[in-house]
Every structure is written in structure tokens, then in C-alpha cells.
Amino acid sequence: MLRVLRRAVTLLGALATATVLSLALAQPAHAATFLTHSQATSQLRAAGITWSSSGNCSDRYTSTCTSFEQIRQSTISGVVTLRNYTGCAINITAGTEVGHASGTYSHWNGYKVDISKYSCISNYITSTYTYVGYISGWGYQYRAPSGNLYTDEGNHWDILYYTCGC
After folding, report:
1. What are φ and ψ of residue 146, in 5° steps?
2. pTM confidence score
């Protein structure tokens, strides 16, 4: 009986410690994690995702650059998830740099990236996601089950990541 009681106390102690640790490490669901350019490129490189800019630069305050400064972790995770699901090559051509439309869910606020329009990724988006319609002034839009929006803007895909899923 004493052995069973000791085991129960040990298990309760371990459970209490694990609970306290998980609560201490947990972040609220609404907390956003913003990355530096270096942190983002490290994750993209590890996933086999490339990026490019017409100015061959990464300055957030220059519109011809492709910057990931202050991009949301959920956006980077979303692009990595897209790459993993599709197996397609992905090249990011725009991140958080100036020169895009403003608003809450904008490039500047870390919610959006633009990617090159390759046939593999285009075929995946148009055959897998729900066609929303033509958005005047923007392009043809598709919605993923996660709610993320993929807009064909002619020479690239504009992706709005509300979540890190496809």
C-alpha cells in the first residue's frame, strides 16, 4: 500500500511539474512572433525555398529589395508548409519591404509574400484550393481550407497567410 501511495505522489509531482513548465513556456494564441531577415532566410534555406529581388538587396525601406525583416513566423511557416505539401520549387520575390498596398493584412505587417509563378505551384493552387473569383484590380483569387488567400496577380502569386497552414 505504501509503495502504491509513493508512486501516486511521484506521478502527481511529475504531472504538476510538467503542467507548470508547459504553462510557463506557452504563449497566448494571439501573440505574434516576428522574425529578423536572418532568422527567416535561415528557415527558408533549410526548406529549399529561394528568394530574389530586382535590386539584389534586402533593405526593408527599398522597394526593389526583398526583405523579411519583421515577417511573421506564421507566414514563413506557411510558405514552408506549401513547399512541403506541393514539392514544388518556390521563389519568394517580395516580403515586408515598402512599395505594397497598406492595411492590416499587408506585406509590411508581415502577413504576405509574393512568389514566382511556376507551373507546378500554379497547377497546385488552382486545382486544390477553392476559386473565389476575380478581384478587380488584384487578380484571380483562391482560398485554402485554412482561410489563406492566393491571388494570381499576373506575373506572380500574392499569398496572404492568416495561419501557418496551406
Report:
1. -75, -15
2. 0.79
CA nearest to 139, candidates 119, 120, 159, 124:
159
Identify whether the C-beta of residue 93 lies closer than 8 Å to the C-beta of residue 53: yes
> Which of 79, 70, 54 shows the shortest CA–CA distance to 148?
79
CA angle in degrees (0–180, nearest 5) for 135-137-142? 30
Label residue 110 left, alpha or beta by phi (over 0 means left) and psi (-120 to 50 means alpha). left
Residue with cell 488584384: 138
Query: Residue 61 to residues 39, 44, 123: CA-CA distances in angstroms?
Result: 18, 21, 33
Backbone angles phi, psi at 119, to 5 degrees: -65, -40
Would you list the DSSP string of 25-90?
Answer: H---TT---EE-HHHHHHHHHHTT-EE--TTS---TT-TTS---TTEEHHHHHHHHHHHHHH----
Model pLDDT for residues 71-111, shown as the tens digit of each residue: 999 999 999 999 999 999 999 999 999 899 988 999 999 99
Does residue 66 contact residue 50 with C-beta atoms inside 8 Å?
no
